[in-house]
Amino acid sequence: MLKKLIVTTALLLAVVAGTQAQENKKYKIGAAVYGVKNEFVQLWVKALKDHPAVKSGLVNLTVFDGQYKHITQANQFDSMITQKFDGAIYIPIDSNAAAAVVDKAVAAGLPVVGSNGPTNSDKLVSYVGSDDVLGGELAAEAVIKAMGGKGNIVVLEGPVGQTGAIQRSEGIDKVLARHPEIKVIERKTANWSRAEAMSLMQNWLTAHPNQIHGVIGENDEMALGAVAAMKQAGIDVTKIPVAGIDGVSDAIKAVSKGEMILSIRQDAKTQAQGALDVLLRKLIGQDYKPLSEVWAVYPEMPWGEGTATLYSVPWTLVTKENAAEFLKR
Amino acid sequence: MNESIYPPENQKSPYLLEAAGILKKFSGVTVLRDGALKLRAGTVHALCGGNGAGKSTFLSILMGLLPRDGGSILVGGRAVDFSSPAQALLGGIAIITQELSPIRGMTVAENIYLGREPMRMGFVIDYAALFAQAGELLRRLGFDINPRSNMCDLSLAKVQLVEIAKAISFNSSILIMDEPTSAIGEHETGVLFNAIATLKKEGVGIIYVSHRLSELFQVADDYTVFRDGAFIESGAMADIDRERLIELIVGRKVGRSLRPGRSGNFPVILKATDYSQSQHFQDVSLSLSAGEILGIYGLMGAGRSEFLNCLYGLTSPDRGELEIFGRPARIKKPKDAMKRGLSLLTEDRKDSGIIGCRPIRENISLSVLKRISRWGFIRAGEVDGERGVVNAMFKRFDIKAATPEMAVQRLSGGNQQKVVLSRCVTTKPKILLCDEPTRGIDEGTKQQIYGFLSEFVQDEGCGVIVVSSELDEILQVSDRILVFRRGRIAGEIKASEATHAMLTHMAS
Amino acid sequence: MNRSQYFSFRTLSRYGILIAFAVLCVTLSFLSPYFLTAGNLSNIALQISVNGILAIGMTFVILAAGIDLSVGSVLGMAGIVAASMVAGDTEHSPLVAVGAGVATGAVLGLVNGSIIAWCRVPAFVVTLGMLSAARGFTQIYNDGMPVPGLSDAFVFLGSGRLLEIPVPVWIFAALLLAAWLVLEYTRYGRYVYAVGGNEKSARTSGVPTRAVIASVYVICGACAGLASIIHTARSTTALVDAGAGYELDAIAAVVIGGTSLTGGVGGVFGSLIGVLIIGVINNGLDLLGVESYYQQVIKGAVIVLAVLIDVASRKET
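Above: the input entities. Below: the structure tokens describing the complete assembly.
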């Protein structure tokens, strides 16, 4: 009798301990972002830190700032491998160079989920981001429509050679091909920077007085720079359609004031928290149910089993009509 | 500002400064065991001593730079113990150092009164008063310098005079002058001595240190000699002569014979014709015979150093022909000169002679690295390598240093000069060009260097050209003397027939 | 001059920076359990190799009392040139790429050196100009596009291992040894120290000072070229902004290591310590998960501290 009691108690204790251990298991996750100096990444990081798994302590999160250098990100991944991280989320500065980093990480047993910026590798567990080609298309469509289908436009591009910029340009070009009456009189890179875009736009305004009828900025910062340049030149910006991509707060403000006609909002929260959920699904297994509230927002992007290799986060068009609502967020 | 300070009658003691039994040890080694000096008001007191005699240590203690381990110092009859130069200044002791560090971008007046400018309303500099005060000071001293000039526009000599004016402007009763004429020429030296006379009349006491003994005899009233860290003797300058003074400094009788007369025909080993370099020298022609020491005398700015540097290939002449050992020579750079058997000891060893931060060994071997290397790697050994060269030089020149690994900048001036000489000699030159070879060097080493030059020309086919602005030196060391004046040769005379007066006359 | 006093001063000044480094390592090993692991130490060695090679070249320049601000841009340009030899369809042997990279660096260094030595334009100005020009040229060379798709043989130079030690570490170690031998034991090395210690005195002694000055910039450029090979191989893509800002880390490493900016004093082993200190700080801050803004502040503070310890140990008593 005593022996039975002892064995049962021991088994019970073991089960309890087992479940306890399970509950107390913390996952060491690293988020390697290309640079924290821009607003979008800051939003993304904040959203990630607000994820219920991080707040509850299930996930021990470390954010690595790549300082816009690929080698720094590569070194950070080496560090994660050495410190035996459980998983990583990656926003790379260069999609091609990132492939080698992912290959090395996966080979060392560190699963990687991509987010926001693509990586040219099929070894990712999954990619949770927005379709930049589509983004470019939507921006171009809006401006051309507002111009009535004809006139001159200028395009402010992202850094030469960067995948995000290349894809957005691809989208813009697709739309341009459908509208032969639209002439692109200037097209140059402003490196995602508001200041550079402003200088560039000023020069363009001087070179083509009264001949610019529309502006497409491949990101919001550059679009805002163009708006500032036009204001300084005394041009009524409500008459010239300007569109940008990303949905940062300054752009939304500009849209609500009519200075920009459209900002295509990237959902930082969904990209960040979605990526973490997908990563946890990989680590914990099929019992894992996504903890973030973002899965309820987009019916076009279902959780499914949590094992899809691509989660395409929809863009949200922010126009004058709905700008106010986004300003609150 | 012109009143006499501490006139003798008002003092408790007849001496402005009385130091006795000064003791100083560094890490257990006694460098000064009996420093003593008594300075009377209104006099110039020469402090003499060779290398290692303890003069610098003694002065540093007086100035408040170093604490003393024993002994007493009385200023104006009161015991003092200064722990910083600022305190010493307040106590009435100012020093003019050998190292010049003017603030180039500022004017003369600003440099003189740096940190003590007359103020208006407490925070704005009163420039009118500043320039007036500076002008007044310079006038009183007899220095022909405009207080509004920028330091960077002044000649080295004038910069030295400004430094002197600055020290004097503190109106201290005691002034220490350490080699004040090392950078200035004859004319400015005269100006300085006049200023010293003025100061003496005002009751200031001056401790004067200089290796130029002739100056001491010109300007000093009393002397004190240190040797091996201790006080040896003191007395009135009037009661001593040059030979006795040197004997006290060096510690033994020093033979100072002039060069033996030369007769007979000696081959010409170097002949320069019509050497010219605009602004510096014109139409200089000279020849050097085997076995000869040719002295070149002249005032500062006469173009002597520029000429030597040009001969050696450091600069190029506008025109001129050169023949070495009878064959024409085209010298474009020092390496060419060295190949033809020349070697140059430059005027300013700190500027272009030594490589201060490197060890003695590297300085000595620098010119002959090719000879002692194989496949680009330097041979280190005794027999045919670096150590052999270095040891030979240590012996030949009696270089005093703990080890050849010491950085050259830590050596005394005399030893530094020996290191440079060593390097010059490693290339086995036949013709040695020496520019002010004993500047800033103690008496004992000076004599050693003179001895070396004599030995050098005893070798077959060797000669020396020496540039010097010290009359005694040029007379002692040369066979024949050329006098430069304003870039041209003003005259030539045999050393045995020359006198101070003649040379001074020819040079000015 | 007391003999024992002289020796102790000398050994202290040589070891001051080593002491600082040891203190840093001990502190980090307490703060993070991962610091002293084989994997992490290997990471550190790998991560310092690029800066290490740059620092070796920079040591030559600073010893000769010069400065080279262009090494970062030269690295970028040499990387693009080298990569285009082994990218896509034009696949040459990686040795061709190495040759092309080093040659590019050497040529740019020669341009720097010639202008500095013979036209007497200050090194700061000349190399600053090259910093801009080289970076600009890099952007023109391939229309600003990075060069991806490098051959595996080439990538091995950056990511491969020989006997468990990463290839870049082998390259760095070999170069370090060679540089030390040259500076310590050859006539040329002696000339570099002499020119840096006092150019006029060196010239009077018959040293070909202008040739020596030009040559150290060639060496520095060639090192930047070699560093670009490793950097590009590790990145598996030649990026247009590669090397931006690297000159500062290289100069910092050399200065921390005890080579004086005024020339004539120092050596490559000091630069090794400097490179290690910077590398260990970067690695340590990553291990501790410090936010990047704080990282910059801490890095600056530690570097100043390291130099202070060194300076204090040099002070004569």
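Note for the figure: Chains B and A do not touch (no CB pair under 8 Å).
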